[in-house]
Amino acid sequence: MEPVREPVVEPVTEEPAPPPAQGEEEHLSLALANSAVARPGGHTFDFLGTPAQANQWLARHGLAPVDLGMREMCAAQLRSLREQIRSLFAARAEGLPALPAAVGAVNDAMTRVPTAPLLRWDDERGPYRATAHPTTAMLDHALAALAADAADLLTSPDAERLTACGSAPCNRYLLRQGRRHWCSTRCGDRARAARAYARRTQAGTR
Which tens digits make up the pLDDT trace of 80-103? Predict the structure, then answer.
């Protein structure tokens, strides 16, 4: 038996981001789930592959300033949440039980930051309420927003349209519209070409 080869994951350098899959613009958690894109040949381009790229991704989606200065530990937390959300999306799309660890990770991210302004007391201005200073908890707030969006998507009517792209080897998720079940025109063209090739092959063997 040949050993199983793990896919090669490459941090993104000049790889342009693919067009958003259907539903990404409404649900940031879907964009997060799709931030590691599988390519033919067993390669995966990871748009969160380095701290700088993870910072850029958060900034592009309005979740952090461009100069947040993320470290690898923070980027790893973002990648970890991505995998847990992907696990939940896969379970929902395939009608399978969710992994308790994935549910726990999403709940932990949502409850890591206060949901209400806390009571503060200043010697000059007296008592007042305010949220945590954004520069001290920016990543936690971003993770909480992404986790809450995933929970909203999974419990909304849109979850019925959640599906994996039907064009191998693409690993992205989308919200299906009608019979369309691929994430981009490129994937749709590849799926149609694969079906046409399969039909020609079958016809040639008869």
Answer: 999 999 999 999 999 999 999 999
CB contact at 8 A, 182 and 167: yes
Token readout for 100 is 């308790």
CA distance 39 to 8: 10
What is the CATH code for 8-204? 1.10.3300.10
3-state secondary structure 138-203: HHHHHHHHHHHHHHHHHCCHHHHHEEECCCCCCCCEEECECCECCCCHHHHHHHHHHHHHHHHHHH
Q: How many CB atoms lie within 10 A of CB 122?
A: 9
CA 75 – CA 58 distance, rounded (Å): 10
Q: Report which residue type is found at 10.
A: E
The secondary structure of 101-118 as a DSSP string is HHHHHHHHHHHSS-SSPE
Under a CB-based contact definition with an 8 Å cutoff, are residues 183 and 121 in contact? Answer: no
pLDDT-above-70 percentage for the chain: 81
If pLDDT is split at 50, 70 and 90, which confidence band does 115 have?
Answer: confident
Would you state the structure tokens that stand for residue 123, as one six-digit string?
């010697």
Cross-strand partners of 46: 11, 36
Average pLDDT, rounded, for the chain: 85
Tell the burial category of 59 from Cβ atoms under 10 Å away from its Cβ (0-12, 13-18, 19+).
Answer: middle
